[in-house]
Amino acid sequence: MTLQGARILVGITGGIAAYKSISLLRALQKRGAEVRAIATPSVSSFVGLETLRAITREEVPVEVFHQDGDAVTDSWTRHIHWGEWADLYVIAPCTAQTIAKIAHGFSDNMLTASVLARRCPLLVCPTMDGEMWDHPATQRNVELLRGDGIHVLEPADGYLASGLIGQGRLPEEAVIVAEVERLLADVERGRDAEEGDVAAHSHGKRSAAPSSLFAGKRVLVTTGPTREHIDDVRYISNPSSGKMGIAMALAAKQAGAYVTLLHGPIESSLLPAMDAIHSFESADELFELVQAHGPGSDVVIMAAAVSDAKPAERRRGKVKKADQEWSLQLAPTPDILAWLGGHKSDTQTLIGFAMESDAKTAREAALAKLKAKNLDAIILNLLREGESGFGIDSNNVELFVGQHQIVGQHQIVGQHQTQSQTHAQQQDPAQLQDPKKHQDPPYRFAGTKLDVALQLVDQLNVSLSGGSPSGDSSPAVPPSNESLSGKSASTKKKS
Ligand code: CTP
User: DSSP 3-state assignment of 283?
Assistant: First the structure.
């Protein structure tokens, strides 16, 4: 996506990662954005303000009141003007200190004052040592920020300046830029909605329908396999084609969602046009992307076939036959969906898949995953020769919604469920008040992966938002032909 004409204010705070802001400013400029920078007083210990001035071709204010050599007489009101000027304010990196100040409404320097004065969304990218990030005070402050509607990008895991490994790194530049793009798209959507912009509809943009799980919502879909490298040329993986997740992404898009797709190594010709797309190779890379995009999503659909184990050590180069000991030490990968379940907000919906091979225990196993990972729904994919499984175009699934399932009765095979049928099957009238708590029978859908995905999205919408099946709750505009015909046609080919 281009950022042509977008006005982005970049706040920089004093941490080791401050040097990365130079590259971020450049990356935003290269995409066409107009950028200005504001620095906290300690930034000059890490980056020369002259460098930031040269890149932005603007003053880089630090204090609210006159600085030495500041020739601009209106400098002390700049926090107001720049706060009005910006379409988006990004603070990267953001220290624990500045997070604490923002959380409590301080305005003791130009950066914090402009945070209060701004009229645009704010994206904060916390960067600090792992212990500082984990500290209850920081976590409390982050929650305060989120409660104020500020977007917080979770820091990435990895090597920290302290030499320790933990969560606290500034996310990859591509992750920050993707989040900037997403937020600016929201800003644009908001403006269109305010203006009742009919033209926006002809560009495929959609407005939110209050009773829909998908229309106007941010949906994150993961798909495809992971590769866990043994050395540079060998890896552990699985035959997932990514087709089911792509079908889910297309179905969510058709239902009016703003869809971000995270995909593993899959055939590039399968990739549909989405609002944002990012690729991953290993489970760790997927985890990093999910940490960045998951918390800000209204719905997460985890269709990726994540390897449960990785080689304990990745060897560099190609290990020679003669050097091999022929045994491989494995280590567990993070359970990404369980992490999402542990960090889920009240308004987020989490949907998982369960891949099972034993028909006798499949439902029990799927329901155990639904509970253990704190999900709102799980789609059971039982491996059946020629009918469902890796690589083929058809699927045959069961959908379980809610934490207290009645299993074994009311099965509907390959049939579209209407709203009246669903409501007739609910037994407790009190549960109707809270659609997230009602009990549903398991629904069964069969057909091409795209057909199955469209029915799943329909049913999820009915069961989890109390919305109506598509047709009633369909977005203002049908999806573009490009996304449903050209690209999805490839999901019908056998791989
Ligand atoms: N999943 C995940 N991270 C993992 C493994 C799985 O996020 N390390 C997600 C999958 O994307 C899927 C769900 O968890 O949505 C269930 O995955 P599945 O492979 O069926 O089950 P596991 O939890 O891996 O358990 P098991 O392999 O023992 O069946």
Answer: helix
Q: What is the tens place of the pLDDT at every residue in 172-184?
A: 888 888 889 888 9
Residue ID of nearest Cα to ligand 1 atom 23: 369
| CA angle 202–205–211, rounded 5-degree value | 125
Calculate how far, in angstroms, residue 278's C-alpha sits from the geometric centre of ligand 1.
Answer: 20
- Give dist(CA 256, CA 201) in Å, integer: 11
- Distance from the alpha carbon of residue 336 to the mean position of ligand 1, in angstroms: 8
User: Is the model's pLDDT at 431 over the cut of 60?
Assistant: no
- Closest-lying ligand 1 atom to the alpha carbon of residue 290: 7
Which residue type does 314 have?
R
Convert the pLDDT of each residue in 182-232 to its tens digit.
Answer: 889 878 777 666 665 433 333 333 333 335 899 888 999 999 999 999 999
Residues of each domain in the chain carrying CATH 3.40.50.10300: 211-317+327-492
The answer to whether 463 and 378 are in contact (CB under 8 A) is no
7-187 is classed in which CATH architecture? Answer: 3-Layer(aba) Sandwich (3.40)
Ranking 329-338, 409-418, 445-454, 483-492 by mean pLDDT, the lowest is 483-492
Q: Could you report the per-residue pLDDT of 44-96, keeping only the tens digit for each?
A: 999 999 999 999 999 999 988 765 555 444 566 777 788 889 999 999 999 99
Domain 211-317+327-492 CATH assignment equals 3.40.50.10300: yes
Locate the ligand 1 atom nearest the alpha carbon of residue 283 and give its number.
Answer: 8
Output the ligand 1 site: residues, CB below 6 A.
283, 302, 304, 306, 308, 333, 335-337, 352-355, 369
CA 227 – ligand 1 centroid, Å: 15
- Residue 477 one-letter amino acid: V
| 253 to 149, 220, 453: CA distances (angstroms) | 25, 11, 11
Q: Residue 335 C-alpha to ligand 1 middle, in angstroms?
A: 7
Q: Which atom of ligand 1 is nearest to the CA of 381?
A: 20
